[in-house]
Write a structure and sequence with these properties.
This protein is of the alpha/beta class. The chain is built from 5 helices and 8 strands. Strand 6, helix 5 and strand 7 form a beta-alpha-beta unit.
Length: 194
């Protein structure tokens, strides 16, 4: 899939939203990718994740033992990408503010892992997920995502494999542009869900 086709799937699902949004990072944006609207359609999700799985096969030359994703947003694309790769899918979730592997999932120092994300903005959740997996002893070979909305600005200590890359502006709350200043903001992300 081309990056344009990937974004087209988001547009067809009504998942490319315009307004005033507070992102999981706390930054503000006038554009939000509501991936849940994409993931409600199994065929659309399978198409995107099959393409991501193909990209992982092309870019990652070592044996991959498992796909790990951060909860909540990464669970569906992580599972679906793992399905196309014939691999186990696991997820980390926050406990006491830090990502941990729970539910009897197991990683050890013999395992090679690829982290799969939905949409990367600042990369904070991705970096936290990578760190959590490394603390468990597994080797993180790469981070893969459906969309890198940082336009390449998010940096990681492992190779980053996005299916599509776009640059969407975001601002600190005290530096909003005129078109957002004074307009009500919504917080559609999943970080902080109880």
């Amino acid at each position: 899939m081309t990056p344009e086709q990937v974004l087209g799937e988001f547009q067809k699902a009504g998942a490319l939203l315009k307004g005033h949004f507070i992102l999981s990072s706390g930054r503000h944006s006038d554009t939000f990718l509501q991936k849940a609207l994409v993931f409600q359609y199994p065929k659309r999700t399978a198409k995107l994740c099959k393409a991501l799985a193909g990209l992982i096969k092309t870019k990652v030359k070592k044996r991959v033992d498992a796909i790990v994703s951060p909860a909540v947003g990464g669970i569906i694309p992580g599972y679906e990408t793992a399905r196309h790769l014939g691999l186990p899918a696991m997820f980390v979730e926050r406990q006491d503010g830090a990502f941990q592997l729970r539910r009897n999932f197991h990683l050890d120092e013999t395992m090679n892992v690829v982290i799969v994300e939905d949409v990367v903005s600042t990369g904070l959740s991705s970096r936290e997920c990578i760190e959590a997996v490394k603390k468990m002893g597994a080797k993180v070979l790469a981070l893969a995502a459906l969309i890198d909305r940082s336009g390449g600005a998010a940096k990681f200590d492992v190779p980053f494999i996005p299916l599509a890359r776009i640059k969407v502006a975001s601002w600190e709350a005290d530096k909003l542009p005129k078109h957002l200043a004074g307009t009500p903001a919504v917080k559609p992300g999943s970080r902080g869900l109880k």
